[in-house]
Design a protein that fits this description.
Blueprint (H helix, E strand, L loop, with lengths): L2 H16 L6 H8 L3 H8 L2 H27 L4 H18 L2 H10 L9 H13 L8 H17 L1 E2 L5 E2 L4 H19 L7
Helix pairs in contact: 1-2, 1-4, 1-6, 4-5, 4-7, 5-8, 5-9, 6-8, 8-9
């Protein structure tokens, strides 16, 4: 792994854990085992590094959505909606840093960096908002918010213990709930899969 790759990996982990505002270039350099000058040489300052991390997150998310859309092409509309939600949930569970990065952002992190939503979020919403028939932008947002919350925080069981996406039963339960929510919200025919 190149130094630039190592820096981006560490920066992704720290920005996902602490947010942009809570992470310093010094922390990134120390976690990568480098000095600040080396970090700056390979990837630039904190702002450039954050933009590179968000670009990578966007490309990964976009790739996953495009593959899911292609894989579900030709499926009946009900199955397609549920399969796309499943693929998005699986992506977020497998890549928890992506929801974490966006959750920090939505909580006013990196407020001095504008335009990320227009560049990265809007195109992804546009990819899927018409798949269930009609303009379902708020349904897409509801799925994103729910999935990100589950991928990052999990759910509490009846004893108040946190069950995360790594808990197979919790993941199954959340997936069933997501299907039911989509089914009811979109008014889909039949029972949810």
């Amino acid at each position: 792994m190149s130094q630039a790759e190592a820096i981006l990996k560490v920066a992704t982990q720290l920005f996902a854990a602490l947010g942009y505002d809570g992470t310093s270039t010094r922390q990134i350099a120390e976690a990568a085992g480098l000095n600040i000058a080396t970090v700056n040489y390979h990837v630039g300052g904190k702002r450039e590094l954050y933009l590179a991390v968000m670009e990578r997150a966007h490309q990964a998310e976009r790739g996953a959505l495009e593959r899911a859309i292609a894989e579900t092409e030709g499926a009946d509309p009900v199955s397609r909606v549920h399969q796309l939600a499943d693929r998005y949930l699986d992506f977020c569970v497998d890549n928890p840093e992506v929801p974490a990065l966006w959750m920090h952002r939505w909580l006013s992190d990196a407020g001095d960096i504008t335009d990320l939503e227009r560049r990265y979020v809007s195109p992804l919403v546009s990819l899927v908002k018409d798949i269930g028939g009609g303009d379902n932008e708020m349904v897409v947002w509801s799925v994103v918010w729910c999935v990100h919350g589950f991928a990052k925080g999990g759910i509490l069981d009846q004893d108040g213990r946190r069950r995360t996406a790594g808990d197979r039963a919790a993941l199954r339960r959340f997936r069933a709930h997501l299907h039911l929510m989509l089914h009811r919200t979109l008014g889909l025919p039949g029972d949810p899969p």
